[in-house]
From TrEMBL:
It comes from the Eukaryota. It is found in: Nucleus. Residues 948-1091 form the RPAP1/MINIYO-like TPR repeats domain. The lineage of its organism: Eukaryota, Fungi, Fungi incertae sedis, Mucoromycota, Mucoromycotina. This is RNA polymerase II-associated protein 1 C-terminal domain-containing protein. GO terms for biological process: transcription by RNA polymerase II. Residues 187-221 form the RPAP1 N-terminal domain. Residues 136-173 have a biased composition (Basic and acidic residues). Residues 46-104, 125-194, 224-257 are annotated as: Disordered. Belongs to the RPAP1 family. The keyword Transcription applies.
Length: 1109
């Protein structure tokens, strides 16, 4: 066995191990490795660097963490060297938004927190003596090319020398033309020949030290291949030349090679017959661009883009003046450093800066710009354009500001909250008047592009959680979609960008932002604005568990009363947010009933004891708390604190000296009015029988005394009108009924004689309350009240002027019209038209007025006007919506789930279209369910529609034309659905033909135009507005149907000729006169059957082949 081969053994056998150990010690072998034990090294204490002194920034906690840790603000003070806080290990927490909402940019990295580990410590050394650097003693060698007493650099390449020489020659004025040199090779040889031996050695050493051996070998190989030429010992003689003149030299003519590759020359040579396409070739060469195209490119940048990149702002958000000098203005290294201020483009770029303080400053500037633009948009065109840029989708300002809210630095968060609030919120307007009739309702506008949010199930929530864990990022297309939605509906766009989870994080108990009272107030106002978007948004806030922190921050963790300045008091915005959430969802309102005990102190404490700086805020808190109580009572929730408020409410009604006290009195009267409705039917309340009739009626004398106050008159009149509507049910004393009647009549007469009534007039709410009151007295049935009933009926007849001036304005005017017409037995035709128009408006105002619309239409379209079999065409109302609307008008909250009902922004249909709607339903038979279920045939429906229109009023001229065209196309439309059997064209029916002739005689006498017909076409049907079908396509179908089935029908031909003579557009006339030239011989229409035409028009038609008889 070789001595270098290690013997094999069984490692698990102890005997083999022991044998190996004995052989090692006995033979004295040298060990392969040694273990040397030393003492523990003394740790070196290093001075912490500046970035290391900052507090470490932990990751943002996840939303699922019940106790998230909020990142702390950087401490500007330097901690001690042995600070134990530096040794604390921070547990990583999950961020609810791992990818900040920064569009088309990478996630920012805080480099300042990393430089300390790269650069190390900066240490200063004490220097005892400073010695100047010494120069190397020169050897006894000849200096090379000194100039002006300074030697040239030792290592200087020949290329740089020639470059400097050429630059120097360019700067000098040429007196004589440059000499023609023999070539670079001769010049180099001459210079080498003039160099000394030492200079050659130094140059050779420089080359050897600079270049690699491979490069030197390549140069030597090229030197051997260079043909040897004799070097002239003396330079050639110079040829004398005359000095040139000072005039600029002529341009050098282009050579043949340049002409060969010139684009214009190539176009003329190879593509002479091909026409120019300047818009496609202009980017290659400016010569291809035509003059109009150049002007178009100059104006191509939109006004918004010019404002975005040209208008400059200072740090206060004001527009900078252009004449500010450089040494005075706010200048920086931007795109145009000679101009002061920042553009919006530069501010949006700096919004993504790496420096937190810079981001905070930019966000503050943007907030000031938005606030100034909203304030001065009506005064200055520039600010209107700036606001259009900030709210448009092109530059996505909403996305930038939403992204800034994901920052982890407190100072940036404060600025981001202010900037986003400036964009979303409007200036605080007037106080909400919930004491008005149905004032507790909110009617948000739901845009066509906006879709209600659906409640998320467990699967959707789990998917979102997984996306957060995997840090799924959004694409650029997602951001573009959000920006487009924000332009139409900003609150819903922000919610789509996950704003609610982020706000919940900022409202958490450990959030540093909670210390900033101003930011918390803005967050509450932001949430209120979002909640006003609709019921679905309020339910999303409930799912995000935002109500508990709002109550905690805005009510519980505060001081009361407001006796000092500097303390944290209950928030008006927080209470208003709770009111809005209660309006949005009944379930939320039910959960707030138990929390009303925390707000009791706000109602029981007199705001007059507050300090002067906080007195108005104390009144506002009382008012908002009363509004919240008002909404809960409208649902039927009777809060236990009502019994405690009896004495304070009586004091409020007695003291109405200031405007704030009068506003509080109106809110209290509105609450008492709702309690009257609840006490009249004890089954409306939760719990039942929670309120008695005598409780709200105990304030009747105090409210009668308030009728003298003009600002409280409407609220008092509303309470008295509600009380009067239940007189027959509870039968109060005759003296009380008489006292109330006289008080109202006297004060109403006094109000009419006031100068304010003559100048301003009545408000629609005043008219409604007065009509409600006198109609309640006019319907009294008890014998002892008949005297008052007659007087009330006389007042109702005299109130026609009130109603006439109010019914077209708003809901109050329309409801007043319904009440007034319901008690009038004889009305003229003008009021029937008013009923119909008002009913149409109510029909398009959403669920809220559905019941009112049905009653108005039933009053107008009685059985004498509309046949019973035709009523399904005019009363297509949803039963559930009718019940909800009726409950809202009667203050019955049992079947109501929300007080937010969106109103549509669609174009309203007019009365003429409504009356002719059965014809439109037959034309759209494949879409109209009513037309499919009606038992009458199509001819009968058309005839009865014409008769209904004749009985009501004259249909609009353009709408009549569109309806007649649909009548001729009814059979063609039926054939478009395979499952429907197509009848013969109804215009052949004798009765229909007779009505058509009568309507054509009236219609074809008046002139019209294409714009009027297109507008009537859009208004004629909701199906047309949904599909955006153009009128030209409808006209094509009309002409094609005539050519296929008319057989020269005179009425059909007359309407077609009328349209051709009135629509002076090439496409329309070319369709008839050229494409359907064969039908011209069948159009036998006389000159007297169409509006009068001049000779020129007749000649044009005759040239096309259409000859009128």
């Amino acid at each position: 066995m070789s001595q270098f081969t290690r013997p094999t053994f069984n490692a698990e056998d102890d005997e083999d191990l022991e044998r190996l150990q004995q052989e090692f010690f006995s033979q004295g072998q040298t060990p392969a490795a040694k273990v040397i034990r030393k003492g523990a090294p003394v740790p070196k204490v290093e001075a912490p660097t500046m970035p290391a002194l900052e507090d470490p920034i932990p990751a943002m906690p996840a939303l699922e963490d019940p106790t998230p840790a909020m990142p702390a603000l950087e401490d500007p003070t330097l901690p001690a060297r042995n600070d134990p806080a530096q040794d604390v290990e921070y547990e990583p927490v999950m961020d609810p938004n791992p990818e900040p909402h920064v569009p088309v940019s990478k996630k920012m990295i805080d480099l300042t927190s990393m430089l300390g580990q790269v650069l190390g410590d900066i240490q200063e050394h004490t220097v005892q003596k400073v010695t100047a650097p010494s120069l190397r003693e020169p050897k006894n060698s000849k200096a090379r090319g000194q100039r002006d007493g300074f030697p040239k650099p030792v290592h200087r390449s020949e290329f740089k020398k020639r470059l400097e020489a050429s630059r120097q020659k360019k700067n000098e004025r040429l007196v004589a033309p440059p000499e023609v040199q023999s070539g670079e090779w001769d010049e180099n040889e001459e210079r080498i020949r003039q160099m000394s031996e030492e200079e050659l050695k130094e140059a050779r050493a420089e080359i050897m030290n600079t270049l690699s051996p491979e490069s030197i070998a390549i140069l030597m190989k090229g030197l051997k291949k260079k043909p040897a030429e004799p070097v002239q010992q003396t330079p050639p003689p110079k040829k004398p030349v005359e000095p040139i003149q000072q005039t600029p030299p002529p341009k050098k003519p282009a050579g043949k090679e340049d002409d060969e590759y010139d684009l214009l020359k190539m176009k003329e040579k190879y593509f002479a017959d091909v026409p120019f396409e300047n818009d496609k070739l202009a980017w290659i060469d400016d010569r291809f661009a035509s003059v109009p195209q150049e002007k178009e490119e100059e104006g191509m940048a939109s006004e918004a883009e010019k404002v975005y990149r040209k208008v400059r702002f200072d740090l206060q958000g004001d527009v900078c003046r252009g004449e500010i000098p450089v040494h005075k203005g706010l200048h920086h290294h931007g795109d145009e450093p000679d101009k002061a201020g920042y553009t919006l483009a530069e501010l949006f770029y700096l919004m993504r800066s790496q420096v937190p303080s810079q981001r905070a400053l930019v966000l503050t500037i943007v907030a000031r710009i938005i606030e100034r633009a909203k304030r001065d948009q009506d005064k200055d065109e520039v600010w209107r354009k700036v606001l259009r840029v900030l709210t448009g989708k092109e530059h996505a300002a909403s996305v930038y500001l939403r992204s800034a809210l994901d920052d982890r630095h407190l100072v940036v968060l404060v600025s981001a909250v202010r900037a986003l609030a400036a964009l979303v919120l409007d200036e605080e307007g007037e106080e909400r008047e919930l004491y008005r009739f149905m004032g507790h309702l909110m009617r948000p506008v739901l845009r066509e592009t906006s879709q209600p949010f659906e409640r998320k199930g467990l699967n959707d929530k789990l998917t979102e959680l997984v996306d957060r864990v995997h840090q799924t990022t959004r694409t650029v297309e997602d951001w573009k979609d959000d920006a487009a939605l924000a332009e139409q509906d900003l609150p819903r766009a922000l919610i789509k960008m996950n704003l609610l989870p982020r706000l919940r994080y900022l409202l958490a108990a450990e959030s540093e932002l909670r210390r900033d009272e101003g930011s918390m107030e803005l967050v509450m106002r932001l949430l209120t604005r979002l909640a006003e978007a609709g019921e679905d948004v309020c339910e999303m806030m409930e799912e995000e568990e935002l109500i508990a922190p709002v109550v905690s921050i805005g009510v519980i963790e505060t001081s009361w009363p407001m006796t000092e300045v500097g303390q944290r008091y209950p928030s008006v915005a927080a209470v208003r947010l709770l009111t809005t959430l209660a309006q949005g969802s009944k379930s939320i309102a039910e959960g707030l009933v138990d929390k009303m005990t925390s707000l009791l102190a706000l109602l029981l404490t007199d705001p007059e004891i507050a300090c002067e700086e906080r007195k108005s805020e104390a009144y506002a808190l009382q008012l908002e708390t009363l509004n919240l109580l008002h909404v809960l009572t409208c649902y039927g929730f009777i809060v236990p604190i009502l019994e405690t408020l009896q004495d304070p409410v009586m004091d409020w009604l007695r003291h109405v000296r200031t405007r704030q006290e009068r506003t509080r009195a109106c809110a209290a009267i509105g609450l008492l009015e709702v309690l009257l409705h609840a006490a009249a039917d004890p089954h409306k309340t939760v719990p039942e029988h929670a309120i008695d009739w005598h409780q709200p009626t105990a304030y009747l004398p105090a409210i009668l005394a308030l009728l003298k106050e003009e600002e409280v008159f409407e609220a008092s009149l509303g309470y008295l009108a509600t009380w009067a509507s239940y007189i027959d049910l509870f039968s109060p004393a005759k003296e009380t009924v008489e006292q109330v009647w006289k008080a109202v009549v006297i004060q109403e007469s006094s109000f009419n004689s006031r100068p304010s009534a003559a100048s301003v007039g009545y408000t629609t709410h005043h008219v409604l309350r007065y009509i409600q009151f006198i109609s309640a007295y006019a319907t009294l049935h008890h014998a002892c009240y008949q005297t008052f009933a007659k007087e009330a009926m006389d007042c109702l007849v005299k109130a026609e002027g009130y109603v006439k001036g109010a019914y077209e304005k708003d809901l109050y005017g329309r409801y007043a019209l319904w009440i007034w017409l319901k008690h009038r037995k004889e009305v003229d035709m003008l009021w029937s038209i008013a009923e119909l128009e008002t009913g149409m408006k109510c029909l398009h105002m959403g669920i809220t007025e559905t019941w009112l619309a049905q009653d108005l239409l039933q009053l107008c379209l009685s059985k004498q006007v509309v046949d019973e079999k035709m009523r399904p065409f005019y009363f297509q109302l949803n039963t559930t919506e009718l019940e909800i609307s009726k409950a809202l008008f009667r203050y019955d909250g049992r079947g109501v789930k929300t007080f937010m009902y969106p109103q549509s922004t669609n174009e309203l249909s007019d009365v003429s279209a409504f009356v002719m709607s059965p014809i439109d339903a037959l034309y759209h038979l494949d879409k109209s369910k009513v037309a499919q279920q009606v038992q009458e045939d199509a001819a009968t429906v058309v005839v009865k529609t014409f008769e209904t229109a004749d009985r009501l009023f004259e249909i609009e001229h353009a709408m009549a034309i569109i309806s007649l065209m649909k009548v001729f196309l009814i059979g063609d439309r039926e054939g478009r659905n395979v499952d429907m059997e197509s009848e013969k064209e109804i215009f052949w029916d004798p009765i229909v033909q007779g009505h058509l002739d009568d309507w054509l005689k009236r219609v074809c006498k008046k002139r019209t135009n294409l714009d009027t017909l297109e507008a009537a076409w859009r208004r004629s049907s909701v199906f047309i507005r949904q599909t955006h079908l153009p009128f030209f396509q409808f006209f094509q179908s009309f002409v094609a149907h005539y050519a296929s089935v008319s057989l020269g029908h005179h009425g059909f031909a007359r309407l077609l000729v009328y349209l051709v003579t009135q629509i002076d557009v090439v496409d329309y006339r070319h369709l008839v006169l050229s494409d359907y030239h064969d039908i011209l011989s069948t159009l036998k229409v006389g000159l007297n059957e169409v509006p009068q035409l001049d000779k020129k028009e007749l000649e044009q038609l005759s040239k096309g082949g259409l000859v009128l008889l």
